[in-house]
Specification:
Number of strands: 10
Mean pLDDT: 96
Helix content: 25-40%
Shape: globular
Structural class: alpha+beta
Strand order of the largest sheet: 1-2-4-3
Order of helices and strands: EEEHEHEEEEEHEH
């Protein structure tokens, strides 16, 4: 059972998160940040992960603490649910279209945290959401999950489409990388013998 539960409380946020890597795409997301709710809901659906997230954050300041801390929790949840990573594909990648937008995403569940992120958002905000927080979310995720993740905008003009394309591509990529390869289900996918 590749499931995890995270409970994180700080002076800025109180978060509970549950993740099932082998789910059906169900989600129950309430972060206090409407755009992030939308992104995490489609992340669960396109990754076929079951995800529940509740966050009570200091959004009266801005959305930064909530977005970053949810990224931290999701990263921890992935690391916990993957366990010793026995049998996983390890790698995943996709080039995903979202209307005029095209996004490349590639991941290596390597035990080494790295984010390569390239985007040119046309606006500083999507509604009330700061577009710079997209990168902050992914940076927090990779630090805690110890995943190497590359996300690049190859085309696109609409900021909503760019962000949505990134989260959908991230979902599809992580779905592939975290999936069990039945032929090698008892092997660690590394010549080192550990990830």
């Amino acid at each position: 059972m590749r499931k995890s539960e995270i409970d994180r409380q700080t002076a800025e946020t109180k978060i509970t998160l549950t993740l099932d890597l082998d789910g059906s795409g169900k989600s129950d997301v309430s972060t206090g940040v409407g755009f992030l709710d939308h992104m995490l809901t489609l992340f669960a659906r396109h990754g076929r992960f079951d995800l529940e997230v509740k966050c009570d954050g200091d959004t009266y300041v801005d959305d930064h603490h909530s977005v970053e801390d949810i990224g931290i929790c999701l990263g921890k949840a992935f690391a916990q649910a993957l366990g010793d990573m026995r049998g996983i594909n390890r790698y995943g990648s996709v080039i995903l279209p979202m209307d005029e937008t095209l996004v490349l995403c590639a991941a290596d569940i390597s035990g080494r945290a790295y984010l390569g992120f390239e985007a040119d958002f046309a606006s500083e905000k999507i509604g009330t959401f700061d577009t710079e927080l997209v990168e902050e979310f992914f940076a927090a995720f990779v630090r805690e999950s110890r995943v190497t993740l590359h996300i690049r905008q190859l085309a696109g003009k609409n900021s909503h489409h760019i962000a949505e394309g990134m989260f959908k591509a991230f979902a599809r990529t992580m779905r592939t990388a975290a999936a069990i390869d039945e032929k090698f289900s008892d092997e660690i996918p590394s010549t080192k013998g550990v990830l």
